[in-house]
Predict the structure.
Amino acid sequence: MATTARRKRKVPFLIILALLVAVIFGLPWACQRIEAPWSVGGPEQPTLTRTWEGPLAARLGAKYRLLVSLDYKELTHRSRRGRGRGNFWKRNNLTGTARLCTPKGQRWDYEVSGRADRDGTGLLLRLEYGDPSQSGLDLELRGAYEGERVAVTANKNPFLRDGTFKQVRTVSSADPDDSFAPIELRPGTREAFEAACR
């Protein structure tokens, strides 16, 4: 009888343990599906978290190419404790890498951080170049995810007309506005990017 009583006590403990494990491992999964449905693929369902590629054109004619690979950034304990109300929806939920190719064939590699709202219509991508002494290369892209395309605008163009990088670029009659036109990225591959960047 003592053995039966011990077994009866063990069963609720095992059930509670199984439920606890399910909650711990299931919570990130549920948060991702609620907060970022664009990161969860399915049959015939596109996702934002993949590789995007496309042309960039400066207003004065120079042609560039951009490759962006995005991944979902999971909610961590630190990001749950935001500073103030509403920070949960403003936290970074995207991470990745990017590569920009200039008309001269130079390639600039970036780390990407950013966020997209639940439906992807509010998209912010920060492209940060690794060397702080060349922080003028950093770009901010704002726009929207629209299924099979990402439509964004860049906050600046850090390159001269010939594609040469300039740390501080001013707009004047000698150096007129040469900002990037609106950018449209499509699903792509690094191979396609490299082939187009010659």
Q: What stands out?
A: The chain has two domains: 2-35, 47-78+93-196. The longest strand covers residues 63-72. The chain has a mean pLDDT of 81. Helices lie at 2-35, 77-80, 190-196.
